[in-house]
Design goal:
Number of domains: 2
Structural class: alpha/beta
Strand order of the largest sheet: 1-2-3-5-7-10
Strand content: 15-25%
Oligomer: single chain
Number of helices: 10
Distance between the termini: 26 Å
CATH topology of the largest domain: 2-enoyl-CoA Hydratase, Chain A, domain 1
Helix content: 40-55%
CATH superfamily of the largest domain: 2-enoyl-CoA Hydratase, Chain A, domain 1
CATH architecture of the largest domain: Alpha-Beta Complex
Shape: globular
Number of strands: 10
CATH class of the largest domain: Alpha Beta
């Protein structure tokens, strides 16, 4: 399927989604949201995709919403429509994908662009990249889940300062703070990202999905409830074809070949 604002390729178990508005540094328009949601649904429907990689074309990852793009068809009396009906559902769809997701941040990531990156399971960033809670710089408050995502990633004190000051957070500092998985040299970003997503695409897909669910539940569960959930999920994982293959491979002293079931 062809998209106006992104490129999507699904091959060898990997879905590669590239935001493709390089002249706008991949700012998110209404059309971007339509395309991104449709693209994610295509990934979900695919029987081949076992991991997703998101990055940006050109020199930017995503500077947030495109404030100048047309909003054809929206109700002018409903100022919340774009955020409520287009941005929020699409970001939530990404956050709840069953397969592992990786963001390769290749440049500026600001506003909703930060939320897009942090909605992925693993985030890598080029050393020249930066993250910015830019909402306050135009008199707005964080949206697209930024206040939740950033505070969970770096803690309330740092998140509050980032949102009140609206300053750049270099990728290297973001990694030091635990906001992202890793900061790498610019020319190594795509290679590193491909290595990670290739490993995930060849791994135990059901176990990955269960791990993602476990990590989400840590936000609200007590330790006791979390341990009960781990026990239940472990029972499910033990019955997968991939776990059976792993046990067989261990006994035969070889690497397991996972099929994602």
């Amino acid at each position: 399927m062809n998209y106006e604002t992104l490129q999507l390729e699904i091959k060898h178990g990997i879905a590669r989604l590239t935001l493709n508005r390089p002249d706008k540094l991949n700012a998110l328009s209404m059309q971007s949201m339509l395309d991104l949601k449709a693209g994610l649904k295509e990934v979900i429907a695919s029987r081949e995709a076992r991991a997703l990689l998101i990055t940006g074309a050109g020199r930017g990852f995503c500077p947030g919403a495109d404030m100048t793009s047309p909003r054809t068809g929206l109700n002018p009396d409903d100022v919340d429509e774009l955020l409520r009906d287009y941005f929020a559902p699409t970001f939530q769809l990404l956050q709840t994908l069953k397969i592992p997701t990786v963001a390769a941040v290749n440049g500026v990531s600001a506003g909703a662009g930060v939320s897009l990156a942090l909605s992925c399971d693993i985030v890598l960033a080029a050393r020249s990249a930066y993250f910015m809670q830019s909402f306050v710089n135009i008199g707005l408050v964080p949206d697209t889940g930024a206040s939740w995502l950033v505070s969970k990633a770096v803690g309330n004190a740092r998140a509050t300062a980032l949102m009140l000051l609206g300053e750049r957070l270099p990728a290297e500092t973001a990694a030091e703070w635990g906001m992202i998985w890793k900061c790498v040299d610019d020319d190594a970003l795509q290679q590193e990202a491909e290595a990670i997503v290739s490993k995930l695409a060849a791994g135990p897909t059901t176990a990955y999905s269960l791990i993602k669910n476990l990590m989400r539940e840590t936000q609200t569960n007590s330790l006791q409830d979390q341990m009960l959930l781990e026990t239940a999920y472990q029972t499910t994982a033990r019955n997968t074809t991939d776990h059976i293959e792993a046990k067989k491979a261990f006994a035969e002293k070889r690497k397991p070949v996972y099929i994602g079931r």
